[in-house]
Amino acid sequence: MKFQEIGTTKVKRVQLVDRLGSEANLIGTIHITTSHFIFKAEDTPKEIWISNALIGSIERSSISAAGSRLIIKCKNFQTITLLIPKEKECLDLYETLLRVSKLYNINEAFAFFRKENPDKQVSVKEASNNWFRLNWDEEFKRQEVGDTWKKTDFNAAYAYCDTYPEELWIPANASTQVLIGSCRFRSRARLPVLTYYYKANGAAICRCSQPLAGFSARCVEDENLMELIMGANQSASTLYLIDTRPKVNAMVNKVQGKGFEDVRNYQNMQSHFFDIENIHVMRSSLNKLLDACQKSTSVTEYLKAVESSGWLRHLKILIECGKFISDSILRCISCVVHCSDGWDRTSQTVAIAQLLLDPYYRTIYGFQVLLDKDWLGFGFKFDDRCSHLSANEELLKEASPIFTQFIDVVYQLMRQKPTAFEFNERFLLEINEHAYSCMYGTFLGNCDKDRKDLRVATRTHSLWAHIDSNLEHYKNPFYKSTSYYLNDIDLGPSAFVVWTNLYNQFDTGIQPREYINDVAVNTKEHLNVLETKLKQVNEGKLLPTNFSVKWQSLLNAEECYSRNCGLEYTTRFEKRLYCYNCGKVFCKRCIKVNEHGSRLCAQCLKASS
Amino acid sequence: MKFQEIGTTKVKRVQLVDRLGSEANLIGTIHITTSHFIFKAEDTPKEIWISNALIGSIERSSISAAGSRLIIKCKNFQTITLLIPKEKECLDLYETLLRVSKLYNINEAFAFFRKENPDKQVSVKEASNNWFRLNWDEEFKRQEVGDTWKKTDFNAAYAYCDTYPEELWIPANASTQVLIGSCRFRSRARLPVLTYYYKANGAAICRCSQPLAGFSARCVEDENLMELIMGANQSASTLYLIDTRPKVNAMVNKVQGKGFEDVRNYQNMQSHFFDIENIHVMRSSLNKLLDACQKSTSVTEYLKAVESSGWLRHLKILIECGKFISDSILRCISCVVHCSDGWDRTSQTVAIAQLLLDPYYRTIYGFQVLLDKDWLGFGFKFDDRCSHLSANEELLKEASPIFTQFIDVVYQLMRQKPTAFEFNERFLLEINEHAYSCMYGTFLGNCDKDRKDLRVATRTHSLWAHIDSNLEHYKNPFYKSTSYYLNDIDLGPSAFVVWTNLYNQFDTGIQPREYINDVAVNTKEHLNVLETKLKQVNEGKLLPTNFSVKWQSLLNAEECYSRNCGLEYTTRFEKRLYCYNCGKVFCKRCIKVNEHGSRLCAQCLKASS
């Protein structure tokens, strides 16, 4: 969208209504740009920036003496209520917002306009190496995939399956004939391929879509491929065929000529069903949960609404299924996992299983690899599920919070194992937000092919690069890097909680906004500085000087001490930084690092030099 | 109880059944002593010690091939299930447990046997000064009570009110005649007296019991006393009469000649009712909550059961009432608070109000003073509510978790304000447990007079002394000592959670057992050591030596490294201690502090000297 297409771009004297009524309404000015909705308060330095892609719905409500109300609901669960004095202005703003928030073509996403100079000199392939986290060869090398598996270029140029990656790993003995046959027998040609190899015992997790079995169809090549997968794990004589759908749903698919494997045709294999509901049930469940979080007025109503939303129950079943897969792998039994198309429930459950099994995926880098592999690589439809193309009303019924649900599952695991993950809650919140924001190319497109066609690697910024540049913000100070399987996950009913820091994250007035993590990170940094200093003194490299720091003072600070910089510390992406000399808190812009690695404010830095 | 009265004192080859089935049953030996039930595992160093007073109920269940089951439910929410091979042994054990767990006379509580040499030389008064936290004179001096209030010895030797303290603070102009008159008009003679004076504006919180008003009775002296209380706050011309009961309950009391103040007789005063339910409703609510926590099998069932228990709703109403009182005080309006007898709901709500108002009560010492004052001082019936005298079946209907509920409220506040309290969760768990354990004299007796008669100060140990000797265990590393009013408490429906670390604290297999607090405390200690060391180097007091410590290594430890000491780190009262040289973890017995204040293990200590 060109800038001139926007109607009203500025509305003055607008009131921002506090939902909870715990703070007074702020008065400010609205600016609409091609990329953002901006509210700038008049008397305070407060600013709200919302990427236009995050705007989910806009409602005009009844006119009162104070003006007209406009309610903006965002995909990151923020709700903005505005009170606009003149009705005409409200209507104009409404129409402008409708225009800027609707995307007709993914090529018009903000991510493509943010990068001023696309890397034209660089080939797409070259750019991709830096832009993506995942390199298929390297990842399977890291997994130490045994020689019962091989790489195939059978799907080069997406010849057989356009929602799969070009490079696939399959049993070493599988012929092209077998692969082609299996493709024809699987929904959207998504044949069973390797995604995780457990080097300790040679068991593997494979993924695919449902077979086109109907009531009696069978496919010798598909049966043969499954046998080869079973055989690739030499220490077991069985294979689990895991269908993540409730059995009744799978039965219904038979009518359409799809369905599930008839184990009478798949020798020595066992079939397991899990009651994970489809995208429509999950969408409606989250909507109910959001109502519970944002509209309940009593504890009773809240608990009832949380219960009837079923959201926590869905999280539990997902973890149960992931745990079943990882437990099977530990017991040396390979698993082939599918749902209907093999991109929603399959991506969720195989990713959960891998998080439990492999500590690598619990690191910041490894988690990005996991998303690049099992979500982006195997074609989770981010465009459709996150409704990037909001102008297309037909596509709205494809929208579903499947990815958010997975992130919520990771949060639940993290809550139970506070030292098992290298990243913190803020990392998950950031990833979830940018799955919807269209500010980075990372989560654009419905599959690998889409992103290649869009040339995201040269035309957009990568979210991973953004995270790299702020890595310290996303680290869990309590992380223990020991490698172990997360075997004692609590599946008891009291183990699941509503993630209020996600669903109620914008209720700033009342939620506890203090991240204990930040305090711990600062303490840890301070400790490193002291240790380095002591070491230097001991080695005679540094003359002892009067370097006195009070730890306690680090905790007594609230907002940037140089107040004129206009930054607030309630924004969750902003970390508090402490001057190690005076102990006051500053924002990133107002603090510097000296030659000893200590953070100092401008004044103390001047005094010390 | 004498030792010889115990029947079976030892049963071998007993299986301890894991409730959740997540761990294998342990085999061990049961020992019963006059004071404790002990389970000692055979192959592991695991031991379970339970004070006999904590045993709430014992059930024998059906006999199976594996033996007879015995289920012991404790007042600290621990449930022990034993499988005993021989039925005869099971029956004997059952009867022994019944005998040792039932107390007929509070003089037989274990606290009186634990102290081998009662301080016979010391007078009770002298002993009390060290034993109790509260000294009424000092506390009211700390509050800077204005000269519109005075101390009276009117109740010396508990002459008028046997459930009140001997020293009382009343309006300076109140005559003895007025006090006597008011006593006669109040349930159990609990007349309105001062408990908290807000020095910033002179407003005060007073407490009392319900008036014996019936349908029309009035008392000039009582009305006069209320006027004097209103007048003692010179900057306001009104007074709030706060009845914490639902209005309908207060009405019912009128039939029995009790009830509430008729504001037509109390000039310029306003009456406010709160819907806090009585002890029977709270008892049943907690029982339902415990069923939810311990018996639910699905998330749906759990959430429904939590909701229908009403526990979180009760917590919310308590905080609402406490907040109303403290907000009134801030607006310079004094409050007189009562319920029926003025010891249950009144103790809860005035204590909550004071926690919100005064940062002193949020320190470890101050919280103990608050308990000594508003719970112990004003006669909260610990014997009856915690059912110390469990042999008396008549008294069982007096039992109610009013104190536990208050501790839960403090936990909810602490969750919202993680830096506002000097103490941590473990401190609250410890206090709650010992309110029931009868191991310390602190929570014995129904009132101040009872404890004087029992001479607890000379004959028993004080819980406060025990806490003092382990102070570091109970400190919140994230505490900010700035003084402020907790004004922005979230009363929204999602703000209240089930305190699983209390109600599910013994589900060891699955709950996250890692206290982030411990890691932070160790880091902080380590930081202090480094700072001291650096200072000494800088001042030339210490020669630089190769003192290298890796912070990261502090986090990679699980159990006492010198495994032969038999201590486990899953017990919540045991803190992990780290050797600052090798970074390994040790228990308290196996670690020493060197001359520089560093904790070192025996081996490293030897190497360094």
TrEMBL record, chains A, B:
UniProt KW keywords: Lipid metabolism
UniProt family annotation: Belongs to the protein-tyrosine phosphatase family. Non-receptor class myotubularin subfamily.
Residues of the active site: C339 (phosphocysteine intermediate)
Protein name, as recorded: Phosphatidylinositol-3-phosphatase
Gene Ontology MF terms in the entry: phosphatidylinositol-3,5-bisphosphate phosphatase activity; phosphatidylinositol-3-phosphate phosphatase activity
One GO cellular component term: cytoplasm
Domain named Myotubularin phosphatase: residues: 130-503
Top-level taxonomic group: Eukaryota
Signal peptide location: none
InterPro entries: Myotubularin (IPR030564), Myotubularin-like_Pase_dom (IPR010569), PH-GRAM_MTMR6-9 (IPR048994), PH-like_dom_sf (IPR011993), Prot-tyrosine_phosphatase-like (IPR029021), Tyr_Pase_AS (IPR016130), Tyr_Pase_cat (IPR003595), Znf_FYVE_PHD (IPR011011)
Binding site for substrate: N278, I279, C339, S340, D341, G342, W343, D344, R345
Membrane-traversing stretches: none
Record carries keyword Lipid metabolism: yes
One GO process term, biological-process aspect: phosphatidylinositol dephosphorylation
Pfam families the record matches: Myotub-related, PH-GRAM_MTMR6-like
